[in-house]
Q: What sequence folds into this?
């Protein structure tokens, strides 16, 4: 619930809570249609829907914290992008050779298994690109040498169809047997060589050449080698705005974490006598 000017708003009266917040903020309220306004509105919704009672100062504390996190992420992303560009320049020749080899790669499931290794591509953010290269793993997590088997077909289907990365064993990541188009705005395209027995291959020969022809491996499983093939297109969005957008999307999938942040802000404010 959310307490504003002695009025208590809940899940069913969220619209009133949102209007009250923007009214109280007045000229300090984020502009209509802005990412900041969407972020604040989502935090207000989560606060109003919670069983605990929060106040406007708690909401604004969490909002300001998330904005600062986005600003820091933008600074880190800029540093990661510079690192990736330099790394791409250093290894462009080998990446080009891997790209040529992938275009000639076998397309039948049996032939891919017989080859023993596969060449795969993935578009991702500068931060994950750097982690994948640094750790030499499918998802950029620190290497787990015990992960030498592929995810199950059910896990792979959940990832490729629903985007579900978490499993009972370890997070998984999807790559592609095909050349990708329109990948990772503001990011990079990676190309890697992997042991075929560490990926879940498509279930038919036709599926190896259709669409992105996804293959899945554990995020902490090792790759044979990985390089940056090319840079993705620019979104044209300022870095901090893009990070705010990512943060807003993240909040939509992580409401319990936002409630915990609101509780921490409330405790801090009450202990300070506010």
A:
């Amino acid at each position: 619930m959310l307490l504003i000017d002695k009025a208590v708003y809940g899940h069913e009266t969220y619209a009133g809570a949102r209007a009250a917040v923007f009214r109280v903020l007045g000229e300090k309220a984020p502009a209509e249609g802005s990412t900041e306004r969407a972020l604040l509105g989502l935090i207000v919704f989560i606060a109003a829907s919670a069983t605990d009672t929060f106040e406007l100062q708690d909401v604004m504390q969490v909002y300001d914290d998330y904005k600062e996190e986005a600003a820091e992420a933008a600074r880190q992303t800029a540093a990661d992008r510079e690192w990736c560009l330099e790394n791409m320049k250093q290894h462009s020749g080998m990446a080009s050779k891997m790209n040529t080899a992938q275009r000639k790669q076998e397309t039948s499931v049996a032939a891919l298994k017989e080859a023993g290794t596969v060449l795969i591509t993935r578009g991702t953010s500068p931060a994950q690109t750097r982690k994948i290269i640094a750790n030499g793993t499918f998802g950029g997590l620190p290497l787990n040498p015990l992960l030498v088997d592929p995810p199950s077909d059910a896990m792979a289907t959940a990832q490729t169809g629903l985007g579900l990365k978490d499993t009972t064993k370890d997070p998984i990541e999807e790559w592609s047997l095909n050349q990708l188009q329109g990948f990772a705005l503001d990011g990079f395209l990676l190309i890697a060589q992997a042991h075929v027995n560490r990926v879940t291959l498509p279930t038919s020969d036709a599926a190896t050449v259709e669409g992105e022809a996804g293959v899945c491996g554990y995020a902490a499983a090792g790759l044979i080698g990985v390089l940056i093939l090319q840079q993705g297109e620019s979104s044209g969005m300022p870095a901090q705005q893009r990070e705010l957008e990512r943060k807003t999307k993240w909040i939509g999938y992580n409401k319990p974490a936002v409630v915990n942040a609101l509780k921490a802000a409330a405790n801090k404010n009450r202990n300070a006598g506010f």
Summary: The first strand starts at residue 2 and ends at 4. The chain is about 50% helix and 15% strand. The radius of gyration is 23 Å.
